[in-house]
Design a protein that fits this description.
alpha/beta
Length: 126
């Protein structure tokens, strides 16, 4: 028997704001029916197969590069269009590693500085 990821946790100053921001980025993770509020110490999004993304309130700020980060793959647009969409939501550019339209990735940061990547969209053959 093996293990399955139950959730991925991120430290945050404002878990509620982070949860709301990421709900705009990820269309397959949804705000659960249970009420969440700005006063909550933990807020989360439920994934399509029961996994969760959680934001946990911490007093300290982020000081170094994340040791782990999510890599996102667009489902309904190409990589560059998704990067522009997420930048428009308030992400910041950390590193551009694109090598033409079909290779590479871009590293972005969410409003609290947590890094994540946007990869290219898969082709029908993959």
């Amino acid at each position: 028997m093996s293990s399955r990821i139950a959730n991925i946790c991120f430290d945050a100053h404002d878990p509620y704001a982070q949860m709301l921001w990421w709900s705009q980025v990820l269309d397959d993770f949804v705000v659960p029916e249970e009420p969440q509020s700005p006063e909550d110490e933990e807020c989360g999004l439920r994934g399509p197969v029961g996994q969760w993304m959680l934001w946990l309130k911490v007093p300290e700020g982020k000081t170094v590069k994340n040791r782990m980060h999510p890599c996102l793959r667009p489902t309904d647009r190409d990589r560059d269009a998704e990067i522009e969409r997420v930048l428009g939501l308030g992400a910041t550019l950390v590193g551009d590693h694109r090598q033409g339209p079909d290779r590479g990735w871009v590293v972005l940061a969410d409003p609290e500085g947590n890094e994540f990547c946007i990869l290219r969209r898969l082709t029908a053959e993959e």
